[in-house]
Amino acid sequence: MVSEYRSLKDHVYDYIVKMIDMDMIGNEGKLSEQHICDALDVSRTPVREALIQLAADGYLENIPRRGFFIKRIDENSARNILEIMGPLEGCAALLACDQLSDEDIAQLQFLHGAMQLAIEKGLYTRYDELQHDFHSCFVDKCGNDRLIALIHQLNRSFMNREYTSVAPDELDRLLRKANDEHAEIVRLFEQRDGAALQRYICDTHWSIDNASSLAW
Fold first, then answer.
1. Fewer CB atoms inside 10 Å of the end CB: C or N, the chain?
2. Across-strand partners of 7?
3. Rounded to whole angstroms, how far apart are CA atoms 51 and 210?
4. How far is CA 144 from the centre of its chain?
5. pLDDT of residue 162
6. Are 62 and 68 in contact (CB under 8 A)?
7. Please, where are the H alpha helices in 97-204?
8. DSSP 8-state assignment for residue 62
């Protein structure tokens, strides 16, 4: 019975994440508990617990007497996250360096090219999906389940970014810069240079100097 209930809560959790990813949340980013109950034909209890879990994981903000809202990231919050993300993902890259197969590295190359095409076409939501896949490609191969879970939890903080709030020319510059860094990450994986990968991801790709561009 417990496992069935947990499975139901997980189903609600995944449904809400998909709603956010697909930009299906209206009313200034507020989630409607009743809408979720009706859509999934479930009681309020698993919905409420899924929302609480999503808030704990960094997706949502629980505002007393107002409800659950998509959590926004200001520059200070982005800086705090980057201070943690850089060392964690750098460590994951170091651990994954000798674990990635030639096929994995070919996948990283493919994803880098796909991100470049998404930038050229102005498909920014698609770019976000691809860059998530790019990082997961090596993070998930690091062999440390706790480290993988921590990195994925931090990544949730940057989900569903509002690119429309950034001037088009500046957005183009930022994404091209980020994808140039992805190209360097691929090159270092090709060379199997774990120490250089760790430094580059920590000090350059997730540098705290990028905090202002990640706030939304």
1. N
2. none
3. 30
4. 18
5. 58
6. yes
7. 102-121, 124-139, 145-155, 168-190, 194-200
8. E
Token readout for 193 is 């240079």
CB 90, CB 140: distance < 8 Å = no
* DSSP element (H, E) containing 68: strand 67-70
Q: Which of 11, 9, 17, 97 is nearest to 48 (CA)?
A: 9
Q: Are 105 and 186 in contact (CB under 8 A)?
A: yes
* CA 71 to each of CA 58, 106, 153, 207: distance values in angstroms, whole numbers, following the listed order: 7, 35, 14, 22
Q: Do 78 and 127 meet the contact criterion of CB atoms below 8 Å apart? A: no
- For the ranges 33-37, 74-78, 109-113, 177-181, the lowest mean pLDDT is seen at 74-78
Cα–Cα distance, 69 to 211 (Å, whole number): 22
Max CA pair span of the chain:
54
DSSP assignment of 73-104 equals --HHHHHHHHHHHHHHHHHHHHHHTTT--HHH
- In tens, the pLDDT along 176-209 reads 999 999 999 999 999 999 999 999 999 999 999 8
* Strand, coil or helix: 21: helix
Name the token pair of 35.
């809408």
Residues in the chain: 216
* Pairwise CA distance, residues 171 & 164, whole Å: 9
pLDDT at 2 over 50: no
Q: Which two tokens stand for residue 209?
A: 């100097």
